[in-house]
Design goal:
It is a single chain. The chain is globular. Strand 4 and strand 5 form a beta hairpin. It is built from no helices and nine strands. It is mainly β. The model is unreliable at 22-26 (pLDDT under 50). Strands 2-3-7-6 form a four-stranded antiparallel beta sheet, with no helix packed on it. The chain has a three-stranded antiparallel beta sheet with strand order 1-4-5, with no helix packed on it. It has strands spanning 12-13, 33-36, 51-56, 63-67, 73-78, 89-95, 103-108, 114-121, 124-131.
């Protein structure tokens, strides 16, 4: 489960099933796993204190996530045992360009976004921003 107030949550892989944009527009690739790594300079955008979140086709690159009862979504590990940004929080970053409808997902050491998880099917949840910077704000 993604989060439970009664016990320590088990880490899960998150898969993108919907996105505001795609490809060159900057949306996550649908069916891709949320991944965090620092293999090139673009993974640490200028002026951003965190690391960019990617949509990756390979499950072996997936980040493992937990969400606590307060809505903090954190990296608990990586499928390939990388140590990148462990314990950091998922956040919505500032826009990449003038388009305020397009925001990046990043992980940051300091929490800046709270999330809610809504069950929508067998083992599937929709994550929604509960508190923090939102698109178009």
């Amino acid at each position: 489960a993604l989060g439970s107030p009664s016990r320590q949550p088990s880490p899960v892989r998150l898969v993108a099933v919907s996105s505001a944009g795609s490809g060159a527009e900057g949306g996550l690739c649908l069916g891709c796993y949320l991944a965090v790594h620092t293999w090139n300079a673009a993974d640490r955008p200028e002026g951003e204190p965190g690391v960019r979140v990617h949509g990756h086709l390979l499950e072996s690159r997936a980040a493992l996530w937990t969400m606590d009862a307060t809505g903090l979504l954190r990296i608990a590990g990586h499928a390939d045992d990388r140590q990148t940004a462990l314990g950091w929080h998922l956040a919505v970053a500032e826009p990449r360009r003038v388009d305020v409808a397009s925001r990046r997902l990043v992980v940051r050491e300091a929490a800046s976004s709270l999330w809610s998880a809504e069950a929508v099917g067998d083992g599937e949840v929709v994550l929604r921003m509960a508190l923090g910077t939102v698109c178009g704000a």
